[in-house]
Design brief:
Elements (H helix, E strand, L loop, with lengths): L1 E5 L6 E8 L9 H4 L7 E7 L5 E8 L3 E5 L4 E9 H6 L7 E6 H12 L5 E4 L5 E5 L5 H11 L12 E5 L3 E6 H4 L7 E6 L15 E2 L2 E5 L3 H6 L4 E8 L4 E8 L10 E2 L24 E5 L9 H4 L6 H15 L3 E5 L11 E5 L20 E4 L2 E2 L1
Parallel strand pairs: 8-11, 12-13, 12-20, 15-18, 16-17
Antiparallel strand pairs: 1-2, 1-22, 2-6, 3-4, 4-6, 5-6, 7-9, 10-11, 14-19, 15-16, 20-21
Helix pairs in contact: 3-4
Amino acid sequence: MRYYESILQDGIQASFMFSDAGNSIDGKTVSEGLPLNGGETFQFKAKDNNEKTLEFEMIVGNDTNISSETTKSLVILPLSSKAYAVNDTQNVRKFFPKQKISDHVKTLMTEFLKTEKTLDVEDTSNSLKEYGLNRKPYYMLNTFAKKAQPSGGEGQTAGYFFFETSEKMIFKSIDSFFDEEKNPRKKSIIYNETPDGDGIPEGYDYKAMTYDKSGADVMEMSKMGAFSTASITFDPINFNFKRTILSTIDDILEDVDQTIEPLTTAAKELVGFNPSIIKEFSRTTMNFLDTGTFGQTAEESSENNFDFAGIYNQSIMRYNQVFASKVNITIQGDFSLHAGDMIFFDAPSPQAKPNTESDELDRQSGGLYIIASLC
């Protein structure tokens, strides 16, 4: 049984592999005896060594035989969340009036995805009008995530994540995940090569069994717009094109139509890079403003429904910044942890002559991390 959560994955997923000896149900195989055709409900419940329970209900996809013999077959069942299954059969044909984006998100989760899970939806500061246009709920939720900004962070901290865990449906800002008051650390974990019998250093919950660090590809981050982007918008009311540049590099903000205040990055310190090689914005988006689309009066028609330049591109930059520093660790089964949780992780710094009694910690890779994905 393998179960997956990720902040980049709309719904939870799992796979269940079993050996079918052919005499499982009334002398027949599981596929024949149940029968198993896909779409069935799959319930799972387990406890870890700390008596923490992982429990969920998912939907079975098409069963797949990966090996078949005369006496038995090996079967894999792909599993997806109920919301994921509902999303494929649901289209949104609704007008969303001007309300906070967070209110629209709750409507999509409850009325369209039909979820019964706890909703963990952070309030947004900006409001939006939107037509469903027969689109899928997941598509609209991810679109809203890129257009949302949290309260108190206007013009500085755009970008939300939408994802699901075994317990909740979550729609929260990038900043809230890295705020220890809003997202308290769940565990403190250390990796070292001392024997397990030496015990766990004070201040840590347990040791990681494996660890490797994944360094940031700064050039790739730059190409994807982590440090500078340009937004070109077209207003159909007055036929105006406008270019806006957002950047973490001051030298680029010259000779532009509009500049925004320096951005609040998605980390206190971004991964080091050479700003002199970035001569201009590395990613450009082009969007039509929806001025006049929703207005019933002349005054309403002149209002711009959404600030593409100040919010949308800022979200793109900050999504890329979040993944500037990554580590991969293997730990003991701990069902209290979920995607989006904060943990503290430490690893020893490489030394010419390691001394297990006085290992120096790696200040570059150690620190607070958000669980991006888990299995």
